[in-house]
From TrEMBL:
Signal peptide: none annotated. This is Chemotaxis protein MotB. It holds the Pfam family OmpA. One of its GO terms (cellular component) is plasma membrane. The chain crosses the membrane at residues 28-49. Keywords: Cell membrane, Membrane, Transmembrane, Transmembrane helix. Residues 221-341 form the OmpA-like domain. It is a single-pass membrane protein. It is found in: Cell membrane. Belongs to the MotB family. The keyword Cell membrane applies. InterPro entries: Bact_OuterMem_StrucFunc (IPR050330), MotB-like_N_dom (IPR025713), OmpA-like (IPR006665), OmpA-like_sf (IPR036737). It comes from the Bacteria. It comes from Vreelandella subglaciescola.
Amino acid sequence: MLEDHHAGPKHDSLLQVRSEDDSDSAWLVSYIDIMTLLVALFVIIIVAAEAANPGWLTHEAMSEAPPVLVEDASATLGVPLPDAFAEQAGPVYVAGATEPGELAAWAISAALGVAGLPDRAPVPPPLLARAKASVQEPDAELPAMALPKLLLADSADLTAPLADYMLADYMIVLTDRPPVNVQTVEPEALQGGPTLAETLPERQESAPYLPDLDGVEASRVSEGINLRVQNQLLFESAEAGLSDAGEALVASLVETIERYDGDVSVEGHSDSRSIDTEEYPSNWALSSARAIAIVQVLEDAGVTTGRLRAVGLAATRPLADNDTLEGRARNRRVEVVIHVE
């Protein structure tokens, strides 16, 4: 029988399908996969950093980086400097450099430039409009301040327009509680004088203020402001010691007193009935002791001592008839007169 001499080479060609030259290229597949994963990982990191701090890789952030002081330039560069440069002593300022341990933004951008920077999310138009509106808004014009209501005594004749010369006969004061026996001046009555619109506001600015305090009757007198308090709100009968409520009431006068710089006269008044006790042998002694007690409270509350005066007037200046019970009660009082220049 004849043997087939081609059987061996045919088996060899089937077993040797893979070439020996391709044995070293198998690792490339795994390397490319790893590099792809690394690039994707860095892209995710950059996107997350941009979302947490927008604009961290922009050129403006890099250009505004503060310069870092480098004492030895050759140590920074890693190579020795020529003698001509080494002779120039002094620190070197490197713009845009970072502190030790920090990674420069431009280095990250250069290293990952192939991936590109992530796009910044656009700002919605309503937010832009709101930001522009909040940058600078002109101050709204304040409304014109209304003048206080003008009141005159019932005896004043307002049938004719109010002329300027009539205001000189009246003393202008400001108060929260209108007094009795007054009438309101209508705006039409203020058209009488050509300069009344200018004169009245000026006089109101310089007019004294009469406070509205419980138990205190405030009035305008020639010396300035009179704060009148009835004795039953301050003292016990035939006594000069202030009660707790009386001390609180006197302390409430301090704010009004401190508005002005003039002297403060505390005047004690009594009715016409005589008094003869071991401590107060007369109304002069009682009225003076009550005035001194109020001066001491005002001094303790902070009123300057040099401004205070204590005066006992007994029954020399009655307000009402001492023959009636109501009249005597009205005459027993203390008046605090604030001298206003």
